[in-house]
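Here is the promised in-class demo. Please do not try to memorize the tokens; focus on the logic of going from shape to residues.
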């Protein structure tokens, strides 16, 4: 079996790398990247960077041409994601727009919703956040209590969301709310963050500033046209969006870069001769490679039009395990680089603290694998 990239794919990767060289400012890796892609500076920079990518046909190359893309293959989407990840993803929050919000609207949105939102996303003009988790509904997302009550031509929404990254700077929110008494009677809504009744409150934590926000919704009115899909039938939409997200970030790529930086430092300090350190580094390399190849399995399935399978959950577990072992390696051998809270190593560590939680906890992924791949019954 041939695992090498095709000449066309290699040229495409070179095209992405050239765009990064041309569009990133000279101080990107000293000023912007260490702040993380949820920082105010990075979010504002994404509003400049993403339109530049769009002009080069590199923001949504995997989208259909009639929607601003290039009819690109899923492989091109992941080559783009790998190179962006290596650069600290200067797309900021807009990686979410182009990789799972846009495709979800293409599949489930009305013609009016597509016309209103896909163009601004494809041009890199808009920032979104997603209103999913609540204090009592994270892993068990179907337990959410934010409620949308239909009153004539509008919905009145009350409730709150937590862990809402980018909320303090977002233009729009992909909001989940309960629209019926049944457990999965949930509907997604396209909500302007400027709507009266919305309050965003940030709070500090171990992860990068900007990740941790609460969104409070008090009698927020949205037109019925803001609902995506049939009322109370949005669970399928949620699952589809999450399936796009779970392999959307190639953490194995940035993980290898961080490991190489760490090994280079340990070598300069004369510590990498230690056989235990070398063995641990080698194990991390193997885990990162496993995560990469398992991710490629999922990309190959998408390229062949295969519906989502448990392989997406499996590659998510593999990536989480690789990154968590790398984080332990950093803490054990270069803790001084992490304590200051700045620099590439510290940013990687802080940004990946929620790796085993975001997009479905580690335990949830294992449950999904047990049921979907192994056929085990629900306990």
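The designed amino acids, position by position:
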């Amino acid at each position: 079996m041939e695992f090498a990239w095709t000449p066309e794919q290699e040229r495409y990767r070179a095209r992405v790398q050239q765009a990064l060289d041309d569009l990133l400012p000279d101080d990107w890796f000293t000023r912007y990247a260490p702040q993380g892609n949820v920082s105010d500076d990075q979010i504002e920079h994404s509003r400049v960077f993403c339109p530049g990518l769009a002009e080069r046909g590199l923001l949504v190359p995997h989208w259909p041409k009639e929607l601003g893309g290039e009819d690109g293959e899923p492989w091109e989407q992941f080559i783009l994601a790998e190179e962006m990840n290596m650069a600290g993803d200067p797309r900021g929050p807009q990686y979410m727009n182009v990789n799972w919000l846009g495709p979800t609207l293409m599949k489930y949105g009305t013609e009016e919703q597509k016309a209103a939102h896909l163009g601004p996303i494809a041009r890199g003009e808009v920032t979104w956040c997603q209103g999913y988790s609540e204090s009592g509904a994270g892993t068990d997302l179907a337990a959410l209590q934010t409620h949308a009550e239909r009153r004539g031509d509008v919905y009145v929404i009350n409730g709150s969301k937590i862990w809402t990254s980018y909320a303090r700077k977002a233009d729009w929110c992909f909001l989940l709310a309960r629209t019926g008494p049944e457990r999965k009677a949930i509907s997604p809504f396209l909500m302007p963050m400027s709507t009266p009744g919305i309050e965003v409150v940030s709070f500090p934590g171990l992860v990068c500033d900007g990740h941790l926000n609460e969104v409070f919704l008090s009698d927020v009115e949205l037109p019925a046209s803001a609902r995506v899909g049939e009322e109370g039938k949005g669970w399928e939409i949620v699952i589809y969006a999450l399936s796009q997200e779970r392999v959307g970030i190639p953490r194995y790529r940035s993980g290898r870069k961080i490991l190489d930086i760490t090994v280079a430092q340990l070598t300069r300090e004369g510590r990498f001769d230690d056989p235990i350190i070398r063995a641990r580094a080698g194990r991390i390399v193997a885990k990162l490679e496993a995560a990469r190849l398992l991710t490629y399995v999922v990309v190959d399935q998408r390229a062949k039009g295969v519906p989502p399978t448990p392989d997406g959950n499996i590659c998510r577990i593999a990536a989480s395990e690789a990154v968590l072992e790398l984080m332990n390696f950093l803490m054990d051998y270069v803790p001084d680089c992490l304590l200051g809270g700045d620099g590439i190593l510290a940013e990687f560590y802080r940004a990946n603290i929620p790796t085993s939680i975001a997009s479905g906890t580690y335990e949830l992924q294992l449950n999904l694998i047990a049921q979907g791949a192994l056929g085990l019954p629900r306990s």
